[in-house]
Each structure stands twice: as C-alpha cells, then as structure tokens.
UniProtKB/TrEMBL annotation:
Upper classification of the organism: Archaea, Methanobacteriati, Methanobacteriota, Stenosarchaea group, Halobacteria
PANTHER family with a match to the protein in the record: PROTEIN TWIN LOV 1
Name this protein carries in UniProt: Bacterio-opsin activator
NCBIfam families for this protein: sensory_box
Database matches in SMART domains: PAC (SM00086), PAS (SM00091)
Length: 659
C-alpha cells in the first residue's frame, strides 16, 4: 500500500481538563496510542512513526512545546471551560482545533485528524494540479462578477469580464471590454461613493463600496464592488481586479426593515403623544363637568375637548339610556363631521364599534375606513374608538371618536374607559338634578309593530288608519281612547269587532262626517302604561303595519320604565326619537290668560254676562233675550258669540289635558 493512502497512526496526549475516554473512543477507528504527558510526545512520536498528534489541553504552553518538537500535524482538543481559545491554539501551531461543545464534536475528531494527515501527505501534489487553465476556468465560472482593468491604458478600460458579470449586468463581453466600467453608473448613482472608489484606485489601494448601478436594459440593481490592485514583477500596479456582487435583495430588505422600524418608531411616538393627550383630557373634562349647566352642554364640551389638541379628528355622543333601536349623534365636534348628518347605527350590529360598546358596555376600537367605504355612510377616517358612558347600572350613551391612526393600543382604551365612567357619573348627576328641579319634559316617539295589538287589529278590521283625538281615564280603571278613521268608516261597532283588552267600541256622532269612535280599554293597555309612567299621549296613529305614538314623560327615569313596560307587553317596540321639551307648570291664571287671549271682545263679553247673570244655571236665571239686549245685539248674534267662546274654552281645557 502506498504511504500516502495507508491508515493514519495517531498519538493522543490527554490532559486532566478533558475526558480521556471520550477522546480515545472518538479516535478508535484509527490506529491510536496514548502518551502519558506532553514531555513524552517527542520520543513516542519519532519511535512509533506516528502521522498525527492529538493534544487535549487547556494550556497554551503545552501546544507550543509539542509543536516545536514534532514534524507531524498537531490537532488540539480545547475544553469548553478553559482560557484557551481556538484562535490562540492555531497561532501556537495547531493544524486544526476541535472544541468540546454540546454538539459532540468528538464524533468529528477522526475526520479532522485524517484531513490533517492527508494534507501533509498529498497537499503539495494537490496544489501542483492547479494549472493556469484551471485558475482561468474558476474565474470564468465564478458565481460573482469578475473584471480586470488595465492600468497601463488610458482611462483604465476593462480587458476581462467573466460570464457572471455578463449575466448580472446584461452587457456582453464585446460591449463591456475596452471601456471604463463607469457605464454601469446612472442618474441615481451616489457620486460620493463613486469618488471614494476613484480615490482608492488613484492611491493604488483596495476598496469596497455599494453602488446603485444600471443594467444594459436600464433596470437598476445594487452592486457591491470590491477592487484590489495587481502588481507586476517590478512592484508597479498594472491591473485592478474587481468583484461585483448583486446585493439588490439584501439592500431592499434592509430598506424595508428601516422603513418598518421608522414607522414603528413614528407610531410609538404618536401613541405616546396620544396617551399623554388623553391623560390630559381627564383633567380638562373634569373641569368641564364642573362648569357645565346641562347634559347637552356637558356632552358638547367633552366632544370639543377630545378633538381640541388634534390627536383625534372627530367625536360625537349618542344617547342610549332609553334603549333606542338606532344610535344617532346628539352632540358632535371636529373636522370632516358632515358624514354624521346621515349616520344611524343599528344597535344590534356586531361589526360596528359603537353598537358593540353599547352591547358590551366596554371600550371598543376598530378600523373603519375600509368598512365605511362600502357602507351607506362613508367614514372618512381610519380608526374609531367607542366609549360607553356608564354609571352604576345605567348606560347613558356612547362617545365615539375617530382618528387617522392605524391602531389604538390598550393603554389608550384604558384611559378612555376612565373618561367614559367620569362622564357617565356626571350625566347621572344631571339627570337626577333635572328630575327634581327642572320643568323640562321628555317627548318619546315610539313605534309598536305588533299585529296582535287592539288598535292594529281595529285598523285592519276597518281597512283604515286611526288618528288620536283624545283620551279620558275612568274611575273603574278603564280608559277611553277617541280616534278618527281615514277613510271614514262605520264598520267598527261592538258587534263587528272584538279583541282581548277592549271593553267596547262605539261610533260617536260628528257633524263633519268623519268617522269618530270611542275605544274603551281594560286595565293594562299600552295607553294605560303611558299613564302609569306619569306620561300623556300627544298624538297617536295606527294602521295595519303597527301603531306609532308620542308620549310625554316627566324625565328619563320614567321614560326607561315606560319602555321596559311596553317591551314586556308588546312585540316590536322601538324608540324612534327622543326630544326634550320645555313645559313649565301651568297655573289657573295662566290658563285663563291664554283663553282670554283667544276670545274676541264680543265673545268674552257674552261669556262673562252669561256667567254673572246665571245663564248656565237650571232653570236659567236670565234669558238669552235679556243678555242680547244688554249687549244691544240680536238673540241669534248673542248665541253665536257665546257658542264660539264656549268652544274655545273647552278646546283650551282639553288641549291643556294633553300637555
């Protein structure tokens, strides 16, 4: 067997810092012997004619002593917790270094030994095979662009380019040779980096720069250019070799990462500013709560303060304490708020943050720009945060705020939640105070879509619509509701209509031919529920689709109770609108003044004379002729004035009763 291919003979020297058995086991495929100490290596290595020495140690002096005394390769095993580094071991003469790590590099130790032995045996022969042709082939087929420029020719033209350069730049060898490679530069190439490259070449030094270059078709790419001078036998620089590497993907990835990092930093700074602004809002809103004199003024002030500093663009408050089916803006502030004119949010919509805030009574946020673009109402902002205005068990409303921020973090939602509770408590205080001191009344427009309700059944039976004309409560608990029909009909008598809860339906005489009916309800009707809540009807209509009526109640507490009672008694109860009405208590003197204002002088005189003269007693204390004579008018004229006065007086009385 040729000596160059015979098995390697190894002499192992293992110090106390390394597990001897592991080293020996790892080398077992080879012909291995073990020396007791580093001092015995020289004698043993020469006597046994070993091909390699394996030294396991953590002392640099051991390596220096062994390397200087042997002529064969030295492979060093370095323990993990020692002070000896792999670099230091190589500098001391180790042909290879095997560190002891968790990946168990002991398994690779035989390969390292065989590699060191093979290089010693056949390295010179292998190096001699590297011919000029092989070098040229390696350069031609290298995966990076390689160029050679001739410094002896004017403008240092390229005299060689490899295939990778042609592929990367799109320039063929014929188009590339004979020209300075600056043709790869273009309008957006950085002149400072070009100047840096030029200065290195003029100083006959190496350089490395990254340039935006242009391919033959005009497409840009990022090129890392490494150049180095080549000298002739006399030491003069004759050529420059250049290596071009396409780093476009790396540069683009770095640029994208930088843009993302910048956006993250910008968003973080914006959110921090946002949080600081919201925290400042708490103090501002608290002062607004103290100064506000009404709920409306309070809600307007909150919207103004939220949008004042510019972190948020638009804000509005919608009322929820009377459980409306839709939430609409009551107070608003900010820019681009025109879309709020037509905004109606279905309270049951699970995709809308305002509806979710009302349902869950928790702060909700969402991106709304893209969703709003497809909706009936376009929202001209990117994000919304909806804040429930809650105190104890009552949800008074939702504050909805819009911003162009892409996302709102948890800290913003927490601060807004605190703001919502503060506003809810202030609204509760206003409502409590108003119920005690204010003369204002609440007007509720309510729709009931329930085909089983008596008025709806009555409208269906008569094929007509019903309009409210008045109501009277009776001592026995029943209630008379007076309705007119459109078109007029006489088909609603007792014998033609029956319904649970209805004690009777009676056609009443009316001089203008309009159908007029008295509907008597037993206790528990919708009209009774309005009265039980301390309210009064002000307008009612019914048809086959349902009934709609306006109820005036003393305050929101009574309104909530009425809506709860109606929802328990009928299906399809929906609050369509809420209005606050100023309704100061009417005094007898005020009522008299209003009636007097409606009477003409003649009508007032006729009414006064009839009252004072005992005309309204029975039998009459005075005749109409006598009163007509007192007024110096005919008997017919007197009765005409008196009836007109009586009609206005009675009308005023019943209109007062509907207030």
């Amino acid at each position: 067997m040729d000596a160059t291919s015979s098995p390697a003979r190894v002499l192992a020297v293992v110090g106390p810092a390394v597990d001897r058995e592991r080293v020996v086991d790892a080398l077992s495929p080879l012909s291995v012997s073990v020396a007791g100490s580093a001092e015995a290596v020289v004698r043993r290595a020469e006597a046994e004619r070993v091909d390699c020495v394996v030294l396991a140690t953590d002392h640099l002096a051991d390596i220096e002593a062994v390397h200087g005394a042997i002529a064969v390769p030295l492979v060093v095993v370095v323990p993990p917790d020692g002070d000896l580094s792999a670099a230091a071991a190589r500098d001391a003469g180790a042909a290879d270094v095997v560190p002891v790590v968790d990946s168990n590099l002991f398994e690779r130790l035989p390969e390292r030994v065989e590699s060191a032995v093979a290089w010693r045996r056949r390295g010179a022969a292998a190096a001699s095979k590297i011919t000029e042709d092989l070098k040229e082939q390696a350069i031609d087929e290298a995966p990076v662009g390689i160029t050679v420029a001739d410094c002896s020719l004017p403008d240092r033209p390229l005299v060689y380019v490899n295939e990778a350069f042609e592929t990367m730049t799109g320039y063929s060898a014929d188009a590339a040779l004979g020209r300075n490679c600056r043709y790869l530069q273009g309008p957006n190439t950085d002149p400072e980096r070009v100047a840096e490259l030029r200065r290195a070449i003029e100083a006959e030094e190496s350089a490395s720069v990254e340039l935006l270059n242009y391919r033959a078709n005009g497409e840009t790419f990022w090129n890392r250019v490494d150049v180095a001078p080549l000298s002739g036998p006399d030491g003069e620089v004759t050529h420059y070799v250049g290596f071009q590497t396409d780093i476009t993907e790396r540069v683009r990835a770095e640029a994208a990462a930088e843009r993302y990092a910048a956006r993250v930093d910008e968003e973080r700074a914006r959110l921090q500013t946002l949080v600081e602004h919201i925290e400042g809002l708490l103090a501002d809103v608290t002062s607004a709560l103290v100064r506000a004199e009404s709920r409306r003024e309070l809600e307007a002030a909150v919207c103004d303060r939220v949008t004042a500093a510019g972190s948020f663009d638009c804000a509005w408050v919608g009322h929820c304490d009377l459980s409306p089916a839709v939430i609409v803006p009551n107070e608003r502030a900010g820019t681009d708020a025109g879309f709020l004119d037509d905004l109606e949010i279905d309270r049951s919509d699970p995709d809308d943050p305002t509806a979710r805030a009302a349902q869950t009574r928790t702060v909700q946020s969402a991106a709304v720009g893209e969703e709003g673009a497809d909706a009936e109402t376009v929202v001209p902002f990117d994000s919304a945060i909806a804040v429930p205005l809650v105190h104890r068990d009552t949800l008074y409303g939702v504050l909805t705020v819009y911003t162009d921020a892409a996302e709102l973090d948890d800290e913003v939602r927490v601060v807004f939640g605190t703001l919502g509770r503060a506003v809810g408590a202030a609204i509760d205080a206003f409502e409590s105070r108003r119920s005690l001191l204010s003369d204002e009344r609440l007007e509720l427009e309510i729709e009931v879509r329930d085909e089983t309700q008596p008025l709806v059944r009555l409208a269906v039976a008569g094929e007509c619509a019903l309009d409210y004309e008045g109501a009277v409560s009776h001592d026995d608990g029943t209630l008379s509701l007076f309705v007119s029909t459109d078109p007029p009909t006489d088909g609603l008598a007792d014998d033609k209509f029956e319904s649970p809860g209805v004690a009777g339906v009676t056609r009443l005489p009316r001089g203008d031919g309009v159908g007029l009916y008295e509907v008597v309800f037993d206790a528990g009707s919708l009209t009774h529920l309005v009265a039980d809540a301390g309210g009064r009807l002000r307008g009612l209509e019914a048809d086959r689709d349902g009934c709609r009526f306006t109820a005036v109640v003393p305050d929101r507490g009574a309104g909530r109770a009425l809506l709860d009672d109606l929802s328990a008694a009928a299906a399809g109860v929906e609050l369509r609108a809420v209005r606050e009405r100023s309704a100061p208590p009417r005094t007898g003197r005020g009522f008299a003044a209003d009636v007097n204002a409606a009477l003409t002088d003649r009508q007032q005189t006729a009414l006064q004379l009839a009252h004072l003269g005992g005309f309204f007693e029975w039998p009459h204390a005075v005749t109409g002729d006598e009163l007509a004579a007192a007024m110096d008018v005919s008997r017919a004229t007197f009765h005409q004035h008196l009836r007109a006065a009586q009609r206005k007086l009675v009308a005023g009385f019943f209109e007062e009763g509907t207030r």
